[in-house]
Structure formats: C-alpha cells, structure tokens
Amino acid sequence: MIQIQHLEKKFGHLTVLKDVNIHIRRGEVISVIGPSGTGKSTLLRCMNLLELPTGGSIIVDGEELLSTGHVDASKLRRKMGMVFQSFNLFEHLSVLENVCIGPIKLLGMSKVEATRNAMRLLKMVGMAEKARSMPSELSGGQKQRAAIARCLSMNPEIILFDEPTSALDPTMVSEVLSVIRSLASQGMTMVIVTHEMSFARRVSSRVLYMDEGVIYEEGTPQQIFESPQREKTRVFVNSIRDFRYTVHSADYDFFALEAAFRNFCSKYFLSDAAVDNALKLAEILLQHIPFAYGEAKLIYRFAEKTGHLSLEMELPAAMESVFSEMGAEDYAAMRACCTSMTEQLAERDGQTCRLLRFSV
Length: 360
Ligand code: ADP
Ligand code: MG
Hints:
Layout (H helix, E strand, L loop, with lengths): L1 E10 L2 E11 L4 E5 L6 H8 L7 E6 L2 E2 L8 H7 E4 L11 H12 L4 H14 L15 H14 L4 E5 L10 H13 L3 E5 L3 H7 L2 E6 L2 E6 L1 H6 L4 H7 L2 E8 L6 H12 L6 H15 L9 E8 L4 E9 L5 H4 L2 H9 L3 E9 L2 E9 L1
Parallel strand pairs: 3-8, 3-9, 6-7, 7-8
Antiparallel strand pairs: 1-2, 1-4, 4-5, 9-10, 11-12, 12-13, 13-15, 14-15
Helix pairs in contact: 3-4, 3-5, 4-5, 5-6, 11-13
The chain binds adenosine-5'-diphosphate and magnesium ion (MG).
C-alpha cells in the first residue's frame, strides 16, 4: 500500500532521517518506537507531506509522490488521516461540528449525511453523548477520542498516530488505547508512534525501532520485545538508560566526566551515595589503566524498572588484569563502592575486550 524508500529529511545541516525504508501492507498495524528526538514525528509528517522530504521516495498505491514536483497533498491527506499528541480540535466548534466539517467542506457531503455519519463515528468512540459539547468541556481522553472520530470521518485508508496518549493524564490513556485497539480489530491500517510498550506489544503486527536516522531494527512484537538482536534496541526495550564516556589517557578530565555523569543521573531518582560510589569506582579504576594498550570505555547503565545502577568498563584485551595490579588499599576502596564485580574477556563489536562489570 505504501512504500517508503531511502527517505531522507534534513533540517539545514541536521540529518534527522538518513535512509528510512518501510513497506506497509493493507491491514497492518505498525508501531514505531524509539528514543525521543530520533525522527519519529518527522517520519509521520513526511509521510503525509506536512514536511517535504529532502530525498528518497514515497509510493502510495503505485503512485510516486515526490518525483512529480507538484503533489496533490490534500488528496494524499484524505487517504492518510493523522492523529496528533495535542488533539488539534477546532476549539470554536462543537464536537459534532469538528467531525462534520471535513466531509462537508472537502468531500462535498451534505450536512444531513455528514451529521448522520459523524454520529455513527462518535458512537463508535464512545462520544455520542458529548456531540453537542465544546472541546473545552472535555477531558483529554475525550478530546482525543473526538479527534479520532474526526479523522475517521474523512474515510482514510490509513491512520498515522503520533504519540496519541502522551499528553493525557494516566487515567485516560486506556480509553484512547481501547479505541485504537478496536480500529485495529476492524482491519484499519495504522502506523502508531507510541511510548506505550505493552500496548505496542499487544496491538501491532510489526514493530519498528527507530534510531540513528534509520529503522534500526524491525520485527514482530515478540522479536523486538523478547529477543531484540541489536544492542540499542535491547537497551531501549528494557528501559535501560546508559551513559557512555571514553577515556583516552591518564590525564583525562575527571571533572568533565563527573559533571556529565551527574547531569545524566539528575534525570533519575538515584541516591547521592550511589552516584558518588559510581564515580569513585571509575576514579580508582582509571588510575590503574595502562593507556598504552588503548582507550577505556565507561558505560554506566541505569535500569528504570529495577533502579539498578551498574558500571561496565571496556578495556583492550591485551591489558593485564586490572585487579591483580591494584594495591590492597585501592582494592578495598573499590570493593567498598560496589556490591559485586566481575572481570572477563568478552566480544564487543566483533572484537575481544577485557570487560569489568560492577553493580553499584
Ligand atoms: P521524535 O518524534 O522521535 O521525538 P522529531 O521527529 O520530533 O523526533 O525530531 C527529530 C529531530 O528533528 C529533533 O532533533 C528535532 O529538534 C528536529 N526537528 C524536528 N522538526 C524540525 C524543524 N521543523 N526544524 C528543525 N529541526 C526540527
Ligand atoms: Mg515526536
């Protein structure tokens, strides 16, 4: 139904979408997940030409949209409905008028027919009772359901949802997700950008993980959530936040490392003691690294689910064991900063390295 090939979008010098390839078949429900700022909204906006891509092609029902130069964007948007995070209802129109206006103005539908159709859709999303209300009288969940009805009124072939529940009070998330789920069961083709992982897992036929300007990994919900193949996907779906820092020499700037790490930690509820211990650990270890063998990579990981903070240090495999080189005093100080530690040789990016692991 839609083929996206080598899609590229730059804003000035910033390349947001590098090379995005997606093939959407009719009836598919595709969830798009990924860290914020990776271009998920930009991708949806490019798909319905709210943003003009800077390269690549979008083929809808066999018709190439970008090569011709003069695309009929309004015709395209009739096929592709979009539901936004911020609802975008017309505040001066009632719920019913919001749902009628598109078909009357753009599809030439009579007022009677548009109203009948709108009432059917409002009933479907549980909003028939609120047809005469103004948007300002509605809760967030009700606004979003009205926005979905408005989108459906144009009889789209596909609906693009851009984080439809992220502006909602937590108590209202499920009423909107239920509506989207019922659309899925009716066979509506949908692309849903969402942070609701359990929803994405249940509702979608395919999950795309976006990162680095590309579809970094894709698969069935089971593949992506239970056995992701690539490191970044794994980190994301396990809600593990990581902080990476590379140290090139013994003369590294400890204060810069400390400042960057504290900034990372400030986003989470970590105890001061844990943050101090994590830094102390790095400081002690880095005194014992012979940088002649190569650099040291630090990876702090914080698991939001468990509150667990860990430190991994990747060192050149050729290096001697760090622990055996350490004096008794430093060893004791290091032990005092962590609850467990291991040292092993491991594969990273196709290379063997010496890997130290600590739980803080
Ligand atoms: P996501 O939806 O995954 O959080 P976005 O698509 O909103 O990401 O944004 C991706 C990147 O593109 C961000 O760095 C953002 O600042 C940038 N960006 C988005 N829209 C514009 C724009 N109109 N002009 C300049 N930069 C933009
Ligand atoms: Mg976004």
